[in-house]
């Protein structure tokens, strides 16, 4: 069947958007990790370590995935990502079913899920940005929207088709992700054309865009971004500003995403609730899934709103897209204050705020990298900047696990050992108070970046 170029671009965007669902399953961790831990005998610190390895998989694979996309096109990156994600969930289901307790094996499997997400997401973002350069904020926000909504979608599917069954839920993740990939990936792969020799090396010739990128479709911006990569990237102070700010904001968001399940367990009443309510485990899991769903929807909203706001700021008001980073800068400061004191009935507010500002972070930062350093090596540059959360996220997650485990007590009930924290918010509140200082550092860094970029633009305007 013949498709016109405009129809093919539109269909590519739609399918790339749904591929975002496959990437976002890494954020489902809190909806099943407590049950996974109970089955395999893991502590909160060990679960935090597994979550961190998943984050490291997402981050460390960034430069590799970016290089693959920039030099080889989308197909190799998509196939690699899809294979890693499906294999990761198949392995986790096997481990859960066989009660094969091994933190190292769990880490390897979750690393595969994280890395697979990045390989698919890198191809998605580059494809959408190249195909729709005039509205790349909205175009890239759509797959990022589904990335953020993924946890909510799969939580809903799990509650409808496999309620309370962790084993079947992990199987559902493997099967549904494989089905989405098989349906959506081929057309995105077709955006790779026959490779052409350019500048002495093979580079993929992407989908032709001449009918789309006419002058009247391009955004009106005050200047064209220089093409910066390699050693020049590391010499640019703006790179380090972005690196530090992203590390702080993404690290704080990931700590909450991976830890909210245990916050729910603490806020429901701990040991007393577990032994006095016959359906305590089910009620706690439902509340955990509810918080994950709120996070997911808010994350989705943050990504799509930030993309639209960024395009509006640059096209309508001729301002710098980077000013939109002030939203997560302020939001993460407020979220740390709320996280320390929120009761269970209001925890959804903290989940919603964290989801929104986390969505803003992961939509605006990639586009800011493109605006600052150009599109020629965008995937590689974003992959390098995306390494930023590794150390902060490790520190935040490790500290949460250490504080929470220190407050956990073991008691025997009906011949079984029950581990629980019985002091409510005091199980973890000092984590948020300490992280507040990090949020202030990230906010200061964003303010400096906005000032620095504005100054550079003013100097450029004077010279012109």
Automatic annotation (TrEMBL):
<feature type="transmembrane region" description="Helical">
    <location>
        <begin position="436"/>
        <end position="454"/>
    </location>
</feature>
<feature type="domain" description="Nodulin-like">
    <location>
        <begin position="11"/>
        <end position="204"/>
    </location>
</feature>
<feature type="transmembrane region" description="Helical">
    <location>
        <begin position="103"/>
        <end position="123"/>
    </location>
</feature>
<keyword id="KW-0812">Transmembrane</keyword>
<dbReference type="GO" id="GO:0000329">
    <property type="term" value="C:fungal-type vacuole membrane"/>
</dbReference>
<dbReference type="InterPro" id="IPR036259">
    <property type="entry name" value="MFS_trans_sf"/>
</dbReference>
<feature type="transmembrane region" description="Helical">
    <location>
        <begin position="144"/>
        <end position="163"/>
    </location>
</feature>
<keyword id="KW-1133">Transmembrane helix</keyword>
<feature type="transmembrane region" description="Helical">
    <location>
        <begin position="72"/>
        <end position="91"/>
    </location>
</feature>
<feature type="transmembrane region" description="Helical">
    <location>
        <begin position="40"/>
        <end position="60"/>
    </location>
</feature>
<keyword id="KW-0472">Membrane</keyword>
<feature type="transmembrane region" description="Helical">
    <location>
        <begin position="239"/>
        <end position="264"/>
    </location>
</feature>
<protein>
    <recommendedName>
        <fullName>Nodulin-like domain-containing protein</fullName>
    </recommendedName>
</protein>
<feature type="transmembrane region" description="Helical">
    <location>
        <begin position="169"/>
        <end position="191"/>
    </location>
</feature>
<dbReference type="Pfam" id="PF06813">
    <property type="entry name" value="Nodulin-like"/>
</dbReference>
<dbReference type="InterPro" id="IPR010658">
    <property type="entry name" value="Nodulin-like"/>
</dbReference>
<feature type="transmembrane region" description="Helical">
    <location>
        <begin position="347"/>
        <end position="369"/>
    </location>
</feature>
<feature type="transmembrane region" description="Helical">
    <location>
        <begin position="318"/>
        <end position="340"/>
    </location>
</feature>
């Amino acid at each position: 069947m013949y498709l016109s170029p405009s129809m093919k671009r539109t269909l590519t965007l739609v399918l790339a958007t749904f591929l975002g669902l496959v990437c976002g399953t890494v954020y489902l961790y809190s909806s099943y990790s407590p049950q996974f831990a109970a089955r395999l005998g893991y502590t909160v610190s060990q679960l935090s370590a597994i979550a961190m390895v998943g984050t490291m998989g997402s981050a460390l694979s960034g430069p590799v995935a970016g290089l693959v996309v920039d030099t080889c096109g989308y197909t190799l990156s998509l196939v690699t990502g899809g294979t890693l994600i499906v294999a990761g969930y198949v392995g986790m289901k096997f481990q859960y079913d066989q009660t094969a307790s091994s933190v190292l094996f769990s880490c390897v499997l979750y690393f595969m899920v994280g890395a697979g997400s990045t390989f698919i997401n890198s191809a998605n973002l580059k494809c959408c940005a190249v195909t729709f350069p005039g509205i790349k904020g909205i175009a890239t926000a759509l797959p990022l929207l589904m990335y953020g909504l993924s946890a909510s979608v799969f939580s809903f599917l799990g509650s409808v088709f496999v309620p309370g069954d962790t084993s079947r839920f992990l199987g559902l993740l493997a099967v549904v992700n494989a089905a989405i990939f098989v349906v959506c990936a081929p057309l995105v792969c077709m955006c790779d054309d026959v490779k052409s020799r350019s500048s002495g090396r093979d580079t993929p010739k992407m989908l032709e865009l001449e009918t789309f990128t006419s002058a009247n479709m391009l955004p009106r911006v005050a200047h064209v971004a220089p093409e910066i990569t390699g050693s020049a990237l590391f010499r640019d102070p703006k790179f380090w500003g972005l690196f530090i700010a992203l590390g702080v904001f993404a690290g704080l968001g990931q700590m909450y995403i991976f830890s909210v399940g245990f916050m729910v367990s603490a806020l429901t009443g701990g040991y007393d609730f577990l032994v006095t309510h016959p359906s305590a485990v089910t009620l706690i899991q439902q509340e955990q899934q509810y918080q994950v769903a709120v996070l997911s929807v808010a994350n989705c909203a943050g990504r799509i709103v930030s993309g639209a706001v960024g395009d509006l700021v640059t096209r309508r008001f001729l301002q710098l897209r980077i000013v939109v980073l002030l939203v997560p800068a302020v939001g993460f400061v407020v979220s740390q204050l709320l996280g320390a004191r929120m009761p269970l009935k209001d925890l959804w507010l903290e989940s919603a705020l964290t989801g929104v500002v986390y969505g803003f972070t992961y939509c605006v930062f990639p586009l800011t990298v493109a605006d600052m350093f150009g599109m020629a090596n965008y995937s590689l540059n974003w992959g390098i900047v995306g390494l930023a959360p590794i150390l902060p996220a490790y520190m935040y997650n490790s500290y949460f696990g250490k504080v929470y485990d220190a407050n956990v007590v073991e008691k025997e009930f009906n011949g079984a050992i029950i581990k629980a924290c019985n002091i409510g918010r005091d199980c973890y509140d000092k984590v948020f108070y300490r992280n507040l200082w990090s949020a202030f550092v990230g906010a200061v860094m964003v303010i400096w970046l906005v000032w620095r970029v504005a100054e550079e633009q003013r100097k450029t305007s004077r010279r012109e």
